[in-house]
Amino acid sequence: MSTSRKEFIRNSFLLAGAAGFNIPSPSELSEKRFPNAEGDRLVLLGTQGGPFIRSYTQTPSANLIVYKDIPFVIDTGYGTTFKLKEAGINLSTLKYIFITHLHSDHYLDLGPLLYNAWIAGLTEPINVYAPAGIRPLLNAYWESNRFDIDTRIKDEGRPDIRNLVIAYEITEGIQVAHPDFEISAIKNIHPPIDASYAFKFKLGKKIIVFSGDTAYHPALATFASGADYLIHEVMYSPAVDEIAKRRPNATKLIASIKSHHTSAEDVGRIAKAANVKTLILNHFVPPDDKSLNNQIWIDAVRSTFTGTIIVGKDLQQFNF
Ligand SMILES: [Zn+2]
Ligand SMILES: [Zn+2]
């Protein structure tokens, strides 16, 4: 073997070792998480803001509630399918998926998730609640996979997934009214997207609210009044301003970011006005500023909210 080849192999091992030291592998995460995968729970699956993929440890938006053994998925950013497996969910048991808005960091894994639920043995319908546009999005996905789907139906005797996925275009109000739970939506503020929603889950006596992506929206405080958990997106404004120094032509980007995200201080104002029991921060903006540690986020929100603040991490679980 040549010296350069030996060096290449040695360096590859060093790199692999370094990566393994810092980032828990998916199997390590599974071992830690699976024993807890029981009871009524909220699991943060993906807490990163925006669609850019950086690492498996923080992936785009996705959340899971399990209530009375029924899994509810809220947003399906890239990586959701694997994160659900890490959280101990049998994909063939999925029944309810809610999408806050049609930005790819909130839905990119929807098609693959539905497909994998089908491959896992899905027999009951999955209900997908999403803004207008969801039907053409799903139809295009089925069309792009038509050859495989038709082949497996014929060859493996599977039911037709296109009949098992039922898409509902949401408007404000109650989406699901069930004797055990009620799920409702209000519009949030996400220019230029009009059809963008916050969701409220009433699960027995517990209330869990997801802000979706939104600018400061005082109506959300009324919607989330008394919530046990408010999962709110968050922006650290000084770090967004820093983008202008790194990228001089970023004026348009910064204006766009600020038009549909909420500063940490305003997130605290919403949590205070709503008198929520626990505020969970997620969808961190900007997502790529390594100087933003937990304490910086907490201090910024603490200036306006004195209650419990959690800086959300992927696969973090809250039993309720
Ligand atoms: Zn987003
Ligand atoms: Zn968005």
From TrEMBL:
Sorted UniProt keywords: Hydrolase
The keyword Hydrolase is annotated on this UniProt entry: yes
InterPro entries named among the record's database cross-references: AtsA-like_MBL-fold (IPR044094), Metallo-B-lactamas (IPR001279), RibonucZ/Hydroxyglut_hydro (IPR036866)
Limits of the Metallo-beta-lactamase domain: 59-260
Pfam families xrefs: Anti-Pycsar_Apyc1 (PF23023)
SUPFAM superfamilies in UniProt: Metallo-hydrolase/oxidoreductase (SSF56281)
Gene3D superfamilies: Ribonuclease Z/Hydroxyacylglutathione hydrolase-like (3.60.15.10)
Protein name, UniProt field: MBL fold metallo-hydrolase
